[in-house]
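Support reply, case 0932

Customer input (verbatim):
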Amino acid sequence: MKEDRYAAMKKTILSRIILVPVIPFVLALGIGYYYFTSSLEKSAVSSMRRILEDHLLSL
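Our regenerated output:
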């Protein structure tokens, strides 16, 4: 009986040891992905806008 209780406790502790660091890691990945894609999009739009303005000024 005690062995079963300890086995369940081991599984609980192990799952928490794995789960607790994963949550902040996933949050950091999500935030990093959001800011990276946002920055990339702003950079691409800015570059296209500059090219368009250069072409319109040369007409």
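We compared this against your earlier run and they match. Two observations from our side: The chain has a mean pLDDT of 93. Helices lie at 2-57. Please reopen the case if you see a mismatch on your end.
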